[in-house]
Amino acid sequence: xxxxxxxxxxxxxxxxxxxxxxxxxxxxxxxxxxxxxxxxxxxxxxxxxxxxxxxxxxxxxxxxxxxxxxxxxxxxxxxxxxxxxxxxxxxxxxxxxxxxxxxxxxxxxxxxxxxxxxxxxxxxxxx
Length: 127
Known about the structure:
Layout: E1 2-3, E2 7-14, H1 22-43, E3 48-53, E4 70-76, H2 79-87, H3 89-98, E5 109-115, E6 119-120, E7 123-126
Parallel strand pairs: 1-7
Antiparallel strand pairs: 2-4, 2-5, 3-4, 6-7
Helix pairs in contact: 1-3
């Protein structure tokens, strides 16, 4: 079993820009926006960057379907890494302004907390 470490995570509950359809949103956030962000995250030694883009699956039952279009989680080694990314010139000049192309900023929510991994690579994680 692997041992868990204390990591800092940001989860974005994202809403797409009004008038943008699901497919256009998925393509833009997964290709264009992620393309702007991935190298910056690697440069800053980020642990993980994942997206769960909501698509309607009518055959899956859900009591309370989420109103969000996607959930993005970025896992940092610590809070300082998050601060470093947010203050990076590339983030300020490219990544942040790009949100206007696909996101509904006022409806998008963020949560911050400690990331816990309990299973990784099919193995239990202790700690």
